[in-house]
Design a protein that fits this description.
- The protein is of the alpha/beta class.
- It folds into two domains: about 5-125, NAD(P)-binding Rossmann-like Domain (Rossmann fold, 3-Layer(aba) Sandwich), CATH 3.40.50.720; about 140-215, Regulator of K+ conductance, C-terminal domain (Alpha-Beta Plaits), CATH 3.30.70.1450.
- Helix content is about 35%, strand content about 25%.
- Helix 4 links the parallel strand 4 and strand 5.
Length: about 220
């Protein structure tokens, strides 16, 4: 299922977020004041815009109120990222992910509406350290460009059916390798065939990208 995202700030972090979302077939609006950065992301976005993001009317005019999520990455400009976060919150954007400078900045961002705080260097450092201490088999699993492991919310007609009834391996060549139950919180690796899908479950699926896209389109 396609969603609509806004990436505000196209430094290295914002560029790769926008590019990855677009390549993943998501509607992606990329915004920055720097003309060169906007030109660089142009072919990897649904819409690339040169704009002053500290102007609320400008953000509203770009249709950001309709976005499922917005990613704010404005470098060291704490005041700008705080102001943009506030505007997005007032516009009703449901998920607002913001790159923070430090913990104090993060506290302010949460107060003005940020739903997720991003510390790229810290997050990557933690991931690398955890991988070294407890290697994840997925980090060593080499797959071709045609295959991926992804997580999706179940399409409506999946709900109330068992994995056996869905016949995903036979119909789509896909394998559900794990399920995360949100209510109550629980993680189930290699779920049984008689597991009944709920609307609050997250499915981890292994298969060809083109087949996974067919599921997303349902």
């Amino acid at each position: 299922m396609n969603r609509k995202f806004a990436v505000i700030g196209l430094g290295s972090f914002g560029y790769w977020v926008a590019r990855t979302l677009f390549i993943s077939h998501q509607e992606t609006i990329a915004i920055d004041q720097d003309k060169e950065k906007v030109q660089k992301i142009n072919k990897f976005s649904s819409m690339a815009v040169i704009a002053d993001v500290t102007n609320k009317e400008t953000l509203e005019g770009l249709g950001l109120a309709d976005c499922d999520a917005a990613i704010v990455s404005l470098g060291d400009n704490a005041s700008a990222s705080t102001l943009v976060t506030l505007y997005l919150h007032e516009m009703g954007v449901g998920q607002i992910l913001v790159k923070a400078i430090d913990e104090n900045h993060a506290k302010i961002l949460r107060k003005v509406g940020a739903t997720d705080i991003i510390f790229p260097e810290k997050d990557m450092g933690l991931k690398i350290a955890k991988t070294l201490v407890s290697p994840n088999i997925l980090d060593y699993l080499e797959m071709t460009e045609d295959y991926e492991i992804t997580q999706i919310g179940p399409p409506s007609h999946f709900i109330g059916k068992t994995l056996m009834e869905l016949e995903l391996p036979q119909r789509f060549g896909l394998q559900v390798i794990a399920i995360r139950e949100l209510i109550p919180e629980n993680f189930i690796p290699a779920p049984r065939a008689d597991f009944v899908i709920k609307d609050s479950d997250i499915l981890y699926i292994l298969g060809r990208k083109m087949d996974i896209d067919k599921i997303r389109a349902l």
